[in-house]
Amino acid sequence: MDKEVDYSLCWLEYSKIDDEPYREKLSKVVKNIIAVGQDKFTQTAVEELKTAVTSLVGFEPEVSKEALCGDNPISGIIVGNVTDALIMKYISDDEIQKLDEEGYVIKSVKENPGLVVIGSKNGHGLVYGAFSFIKHIQLKRDVEEVHIIDNPKCKLRLLNHWDNMDGTVERGYAGRSIFFCDNKVTNSLGRIKDYARLLSSIGINGVVINNVNVNKNAIWLITPKYLGDLAKLADVFRQYGIKIYLSINFASPIYIGKLKTADPLDEDVIKWWKETAKTIYEYIPDFGGFLVKADSEFNPGPYKFGRDHADGANMLAEALAPYGGIVIWRCFVYNCTQDWRDTKTDRAKAAYDIFKPLDGKFAENVVLQVKYGPMDFQVREPVSPLFGGLERTNQLIELQITQEYTGQQIDLCYLATMWKEVLEFDTYAKGPESKVKYVVDGTLFNNKYSGFAGVSNVGSDKNWTGHWLAQANLYAFGMLAWDHSFTPEEIAREWCVRALTNDPFAVETIVSMLMRSWRVYEKYTAPLGIGWMVTPHTHYGPSVDGYEYSKWGTYHRADTKAIGIDRSVKSGTGFAGQYHRENAAMFESMETCPEELLLFFHRVPYDYVLKSGETLIQHIYNTHFEGAEEAEKLKEDWVKIKDYIRKDIYEDVLERFNRQIENAKEWRDVVNSYFYRKTGIPDKYGRKIY
Ligand code: GCV
């Protein structure tokens, strides 16, 4: 595949399979590809299989069409729709019944050894099926007896890019935007195609390409000024089953339409959005829809016009409905000009207070996008009470793949372990087993739209994600969005074999490093769920009081006796009461509150004894010493596998670990000194604090 600049293809890099007996077996199957249909998805699937086989096995397979293959092909991969006669010959009605719209079957034919069939109900499924088979052979799985029937669990599997048109990426740690440069849409479509391939191979079916903070030129993306160029991007993505979406500015009718208002109930405003939608769909017939950050962090929204979020979202939804588009409306709404002296206002409560009363009032093509926690992507937060709280509203979970608060792709932090805990959280909305995963896959409340939105960690860097190992987060996001039953460990292992090395010792070492990295990061940063304590604005490195006297609603309120926020119903802000009964009771009391969230829910004296038998202050010291040591251990492990890793990757990652170790020490010393000075209580093990 032609590349304009040098960059990695991550898990689609395809180096030749070194296991000869396996390659030989495989060669029999992959020497022919029989493409039943002629549509663009079949072409994509065939092209991908051909590229992969050529590199993995070492020869170019023959591609033939239905007419040439006759009734009884000897061996090869048949790719086609389940309604095609040739495919129907091998795939039973029963199997077809099990397929959803985007699902696929991969099956070796018993009566015809050496023949593998990939079938799906629609084109997207065929592309997913092709990528799945490629994964199958990269992982050297059996090709003689393969039988996979797979469907995505969630309908929407989206990436949000916080890319600005000047080429910067808000909270981006991997270089510049791959979509925009100098206020223009990129014409480097080769890289976009490779991006589409990577995303499609992990099941992503939509990308929002611009930042949710929509300013300046980006406001005009929804106009013909940019739509022609965007249509070219959409063409590339379409080929891989991915739709493009745009973030919009709610006040666009004023900025672009020269109207006096953007009031969602104003006739002219309604008309303006309808015309805008019509124009967009003329350029991009399968445009996904709008993502909206409204009345949030200085972005305009319906409040400005005396309306609520349902009024705003539904008006836009009506404009998109004739074309099948959706409105994704973010719930990240809170008072960002709070007085820190005000102890009654609790930012954690805001989203639920605002959106719960609107439950059931949104149009059927509106989806609410809810950050996993009630604050803002901290290393540890409770699950947002909107999951399980919203019972009659479509919803997406918003996860942050980009490591804004989790080490900025300098520090290693594999986020799948955190996401998995979030997904496994039981909301009790309909009794036990009402887990977040069943909210976001739409089954708990029978939603028309639901799924995952991940804030992308991708940029123009050679390795796409800044830290090579941060590719694992992108990979894991796609895998979990496709099927939340995957374990973080199996995802890490798969990614590692596909993208880095297949040496068993190296693989197990890297998997272990990934699996412990979130906890390591948590240990040396803010303790027990209190969050923040980061350097203001940049959000990397420690500043314990950095956000303490700010307007952002992000306080730990440490004094000489205690730290934490009382969010109980009995004596605090009442946030704990936003959960269903079982969880409300659990969070309400210090004794039953999970300890990792203790300071999020409670104000705790430093001499409070934790379940480990250590006091709170001692726990803070211990975890910070441990975290810094464990960061060094990550580097030591990496050094051990030097011989199994490509030299440039090895060196790049080593450099990141050196920086991580410095960061961890800085955190350890700043946090420990802060609490030692506040409390005057020494470390019982007599370690040097500063
Ligand atoms: C895109 C946090 C980040 C902002 C981000 C915002 C959001 O506040 O620091 O950079 O803005 O979340 O999610 O909208």
Automatic annotation (TrEMBL):
Active site: 297, 376, 404
Name under which the protein is recorded: Xylan alpha-1,2-glucuronidase
GO biological process terms on file: glucuronoxylan catabolic process
Coiled coil: none
One example GO MF annotation: alpha-glucuronidase activity
Quaternary structure note: Homodimer.
Pfam family name, one: Glyco_hydro_67N
UniProt keyword Hydrolase, yes or no: yes
InterPro entries the UniProt entry points to: A-glucoronidase_C_sf (IPR037054), GH (IPR017853), Glyco_hydro_67_aGlcAse (IPR011395), Glyco_hydro_67_aGlcAse_N (IPR005154), Glyco_hydro_67_C (IPR011099), Glyco_hydro_67_cat (IPR011100), Hex-like_dom2 (IPR029018)
EC number: 3.2.1.131
Family note: Belongs to the glycosyl hydrolase 67 family.
Residue ranges occupied by any Glycosyl hydrolase family 67 catalytic domain in the UniProt entry: 137-464
Keyword set, alphabetical order: Carbohydrate metabolism, Glycosidase, Hydrolase, Polysaccharide degradation, Xylan degradation
Gene that encodes it: agu67A
Organism name: Caldanaerobius polysaccharolyticus
Secretion signal span: none
